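Page 47, continued from p. 46.
Same chain as before, 164 aa.
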Amino acid sequence: MSKRMRWLLGLTLLAVAGTAVFAYLLHPRSAINRENFEKIREGMTLAEVEAILGGPARLEEHGPWHCCERGRIHGASIAEGELFTFPSLNNSHLIAFSDTDFVKNVWASSDAIVSLSFGDHGTVVEKDCLTVEPFEDSYLWRVRYRFRLWLRGETDVTLVIWGG
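Result:
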């Protein structure tokens, strides 16, 4: 390979890498994430929460999701590694199926799912957050996921569906 060809190949690789970094830096980040969830305090109003989470309750990602940690959403315990989905949310608002009268709002992105309960005075009375990643139904994702389960000594996956 001539010196000129090596230079062209090097410049091409540099241009491709630069474009990838540029695209990554310009990719919009969701306000629905663990960091912003930590800013939410009990007693905050819906308007204050919407300012932190970038708008009203919404699903930026419709699932299913793969849970990256053990946690709770809408009072249900979710184990690390579980796959789950919300079947058909109407404006992302859910009413709790319990003996409480709290209105539960859900914000979901490809990074986190935030569930907040608002009491009679319209303020946060309970909050939950799960770190998640979108479930990709591809062969590569399944191999990667199964390999991680194998490394942890686990063998099966549970799919949890709310309201179904």
